[in-house]
Amino acid sequence: MKKSAGFSLVSTIIIIIVTSIITTLATGIIIYNNDDKSIVSGKEDKELQEFIEVYETLLSRYYNDIDKEGMLNAAEEGMLNFLGDKYTTYLNDEEYKDIIDELAGTYEGVGIEVIGNKIVGIVKDSPAANSGLKEGDSIIRINSINVTNMDSNAIGNLIKNDATDSINIIIERDGEELDFNLKKATLINKVVNYKVLDGTNIGYLSISIFAENLSSQVSKALKELEKEGITSLIIDVRDNVGGYLSAAEEVSSLFLENGKTIYSLKTSNTEFAYKDKTKEKRDYDIIVLINGSSASASEILAAALKDSYGATLVGVKSYGKGKVQQVVELDNGDSVKYTSAEWLTPNGVCIDGVGIMPDYSVINSRTEDLQLAKAIELLQ
What we know:
- The protein is of the alpha+beta class.
- It is 27% helix and 29% strand.
């Protein structure tokens, strides 16, 4: 192992719900970067010595060849499965990297949004915007690779995983093929959308994921909304599966009074409350929209605003992810994550497996956003 498995309450945490790290949602992840770098050697552990003895006996005396790596992997999987904890799992290097990349807040790219092979969005001030690419252009080739039958994920990965600092894109526009050479740039991953709702003084702010730079995006949004004269705010974390716990802390601190509790962490013998340490606060009415896919960091923000600010929750019961995990990197680049604590709401409740009930339960119809409509009704 390269990093310590030690627990520290002073740490940076990733708290997210995922199902297959790239495309779905199903296990929770929380990562501590610890100050404690000590490693438990196990030299005095009798049971571990017995395990080593069995391992060495099999290697030296078993009648047939043994796949050592496979056997040790099976042993590791067996230890993780023995705990019966769905959040304690093995992550290969690619899975872990995908999570970190998703939450980085920035990315290396050219600034295009695609559906299929068609460009549907151009990021402002990006290489794509400066090159003359337009919405509606159909991408034919990227670096000589035909992408006409690729989906948007495959095209995105082709650009993301390219090792060079520039991309050649050939598009079709009005029956003509055009050639563009774009140099990659570091772009901000926009995870906040906001506006003043038409005909009201109500601000609307949606958060898609708790990325590393979320608080700066929310802070900017709040200043612009307040400049436009909002008197109340709707925060939408529906379908938001989490991200950095530090982002949830920082965003909560934009609203709460100094000294108010954001959340607590509890282990078998320790409980520690994390409180707002900033001078910044708000005092207008807030409604938070939640649903069954609002998880982890989303639930921390929702609970903090409800218990310590007095916000109202509208929607349906949240996911219910109240345990936290720690990740240890192995020498082979893979990682093991295991449950090390649980988090509690400011009122001292663990919501794991239970979720957070809204103050107003509203189920959306197929054609109408009844949850948003209810929030607007309550604020008018």
